[in-house]
């Protein structure tokens, strides 16, 4: 394929596709099929054009800085469907996304897991060791059933003790919150698996705890807990295990 006509000095995906006239599939390059497959290209098809434009826009803008994103007008913002780009736009303009875009963003948050730099985890761990109190949503059933102040199980003070003792080896991944009041918050997940001694006067052996903390709402004195309960599944991935 040789492309001789270009718009300015930029090669666009649509132009590349427009130059393709035939596609040949073969497992062995020494045995080409006699007849190539026909290629149907309809650049005027609105749905096709919109798909190409949306994909090109997303891949281009994802690498842009916030200053460049701030130059987008409402029509350009409303055409965005890429989850990562929607997340950045939501942080800049939480009230500009359409209901359909918020639904796409929620789906992105539910599925997306990522590992942050080791230095970011270490900075957060330093902050956790300074915390003197914990705060959690008592409407979260699993957490509320696990953290009890009635002396029968793990108390709130024991919970703080465990959080203060977290290490880089306990880190698993980060995710984004889908809770309406914390939508888009950065959540850091730890899953320590060890022997807990002197927890409410007890020793817990082989207890793996699932701990999800809100980075954005944790201060230098109080840790914001999203989840704190016995792990339902054993995590196999510890990116910074020492």
Which radius of gyration do the C-alpha atoms yield? 25 Å
CATH topology of the largest domain: YaeB-like fold
List unreliable stretches of 5+ residues: 1-7
User: How confident overall, as mean pLDDT?
Assistant: 78
- In total, the number of domains comes to 2
Strand fraction: 15-25%
Shape: elongated
Q: Give the name of the CATH architecture of the largest domain.
A: 2-Layer Sandwich
Brief digest:
Mean pLDDT is 78; it is low at 1-7. By secondary structure, this protein is an alpha+beta fold. It has 9 helices and 8 strands.
Give a verbal description of the structure:
The protein has 242 residues and is α+β, with helices and mostly antiparallel strands. It has two domains: 13-111, no CATH class; 118-230, YaeB-like fold (2-Layer Sandwich), CATH 3.30.2310.40. Helices cover 34% and strands 20% of the residues. It is built from nine helices and eight strands. The protein has helices at residues 13-19, 46-61, 66-69, 74-78, 83-92, 99-111, 118-130, 141-146, 156-164; strands at residues 22-23, 37-38, 133-136, 171-176, 186-190, 193-199, 202-214, 222-230. The strands form two sheets. Strands 3, 4, 5, 6, 7 and 8 form a six-stranded mixed beta sheet that branches. It has a two-stranded antiparallel sheet with strand order 1-2. A hairpin with a 7-residue loop joins strand 7 and strand 8 (222-230). The longest helix is centred in the N-terminal third of the chain and has 16 residues, at 46-61. It is elongated, with a radius of gyration of 25 Å. The termini are far apart. Residues 1-7 have low confidence and may be disordered.
